[in-house]
């Protein structure tokens, strides 16, 4: 949360200095983005993810296409926050003791949805896995102390 506050202050001041951790905790010199570039990356990834999820509803009758498109869009939408706080910080937050169960259920449901769609070809099991995936995402922010 502090990283987001620093990003917000930096955007308001307009300076380009960054003292945050970068990609997987490395120094920012190797992979540096300005605060505005981070916002653009977040927005683009989030919009693309939401577009994939909405477009997947068109091919709902075909479980393979539906599961792949929906899951890819879902991962893009969740991963969009890595632009704001960095992938290392996001991984640490997802593996926080209070969120580890929601994270494990989410990742398990992603794998299960793809397994049911690509290998089993069962529409009902794929739909159940997708519903569980969405429920895990809804539960994730509520898994705070």
Automatic annotation (TrEMBL):
Membrane topology: Multi-pass membrane protein
Flavoprotein found in the keyword field: no
Transmembrane feature ranges: 39-60, 66-86, 98-120, 126-144
Protein keywords: Membrane, Protein transport, Transmembrane, Transmembrane helix, Transport
This protein's record includes keyword Transmembrane helix: yes
Predominant location: membrane
Localization of this protein: Membrane
Gene Ontology cellular-component terms listed: cytoplasm; endomembrane system; membrane
Task performed by this protein: May be involved in fusion of retrograde transport vesicles derived from an endocytic compartment with the Golgi complex.
Family: Belongs to the SFT2 family.
Protein name (record): Vesicle transport protein
Organism encoding this protein: Ananas comosus
Chain's gene name: LOC109715961
């Amino acid at each position: 949360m502090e990283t987001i506050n620093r990003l917000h202050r930096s955007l308001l001041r307009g300076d380009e200095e960054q003292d945050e951790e970068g990609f997987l905790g490395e120094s920012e010199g190797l992979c540096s983005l300005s605060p505005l570039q981070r916002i653009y990356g977040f927005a683009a990834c989030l919009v693309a993810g939401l577009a994939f999820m909405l477009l997947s509803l068109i091919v709902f009758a075909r479980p393979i296409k539906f599961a792949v498109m929906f899951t890819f869009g879902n991962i893009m939408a969740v991963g969009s926050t890595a632009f704001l706080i960095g992938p290392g910080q996001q991984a640490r937050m997802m593996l926080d003791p209070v969120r580890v169960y929601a994270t494990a259920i989410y990742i398990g449901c992603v794998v299960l949805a793809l397994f049911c769609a690509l290998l089993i070809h069962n529409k009902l099991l794929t739909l159940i896995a997708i519903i569980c995936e969405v429920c895990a995402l809804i539960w994730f922010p509520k898994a705070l102390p």
